[in-house]
């Protein structure tokens, strides 16, 4: 009898710089625990489009240096150009909605891959995350049906369900990204809260798998 996979939630936002830092870590977690973990995505909606990149340039510049120092990622020149120009307004709802639709159509693991790809495309390539062309390209890169995604992403149902997801995340106490959470009978147990390196993340997920197995699943 095959053991049930451990359900884990990945809470992130495509515009979160530390989630961008965590993309390589998530890729390794996905690879390492492909047979052990069932992933689901939680997008809480970090930014609402009310501020431009220029408004946050000082904060972003400082945060980018920290991200590059602590992680394996690098911010690409196209993003630096976007930041210097400054007029882009970041709204989490469209890319979170696209990620939600991917999860509904292709499952949580595909949604994790798609969401991480969006982060990389924004911060490495300067791609706009409210652009259907970006969604189509991200879908193609991670093996998701882009036509199916685009056929449903702008429907009233998709928009309404995304707002419900934002509300659920808030009620569940998700504060800050990235987070990897284990659902338990007592609520959501954070395994990762904020950026950690790949060795630390693997160790925490392995410990959760072993602890649940020891309790009989």
Give the rounded overall mean pLDDT.
95
How many DSSP-defined strands? 6
Strand content: 15-25%
Would you identify the CATH architecture?
3-Layer(aba) Sandwich
Low-confidence stretches: none
Please tally the helical runs, counting DSSP H or I stretches of 4 or more residues. 9
What is the 3D shape? globular
Q: How much helicity do the residues have?
A: 55-70%
String of helices and strands? EHEEHHEHHHHHEEH
CATH fold-type name: Glutaredoxin
What would you say this structure looks like, in words?
The protein has nine helices and six strands; from the N terminus they run βαββααβαααααββα. It is of the alpha+beta class and 217 residues long. It has a single domain, classed as Glutaredoxin, CATH 3.40.30. A four-stranded mixed beta sheet has the order 2-1-5-6, sandwiched between helices. A two-stranded antiparallel ribbon has the order 3-4. α1 (17-32) links the parallel β1 and β2. It is globular. The two termini are 13 Å apart.
Features:
alpha+beta, single chain, two-stranded antiparallel sheet, 16% strand, four-stranded mixed sheet, Glutaredoxin, 217 residues, 9 helices
């Amino acid at each position: 009898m095959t053991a049930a996979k451990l359900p884990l939630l990945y809470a992130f936002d495509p515009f979160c710089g530390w989630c961008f830092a965590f993309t390589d870590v998530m890729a390794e977690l996905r690879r390492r625990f492909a047979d052990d973990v069932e992933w689901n995505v939680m997008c809480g909606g970090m930014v609402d489009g009310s501020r431009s990149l220029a408004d946050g340039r000082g904060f972003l510049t400082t945060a980018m240096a920290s991200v590059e120092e602590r992680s394996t990622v690098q911010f690409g020149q196209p993003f630096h150009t976007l930041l210097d120009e400054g007029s882009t307004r970041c709204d989490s709802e469209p890319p979170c909605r696209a990620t939600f639709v991917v999860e509904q159509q292709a499952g949580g693991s595909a949604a994790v891959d798609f969401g991480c790809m969006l982060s990389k495309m924004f911060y490495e390539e300067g791609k706009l995350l409210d652009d259907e062309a970006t969604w189509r390209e991200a879908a193609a890169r991670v093996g998701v049906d882009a036509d199916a995604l685009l056929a449903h992403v702008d429907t009233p149902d998709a928009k309404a369900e995304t707002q419900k997801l934002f509300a659920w995340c808030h009620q569940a106490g998700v504060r800050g990204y990235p987070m990897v959470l284990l659902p338990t009978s007592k609520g959501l147990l954070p395994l990762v809260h904020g950026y950690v390196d790949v060795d630390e993340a693997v160790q925490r997920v392995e410990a959760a798998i072993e602890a649940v197995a020891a309790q009989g699943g």
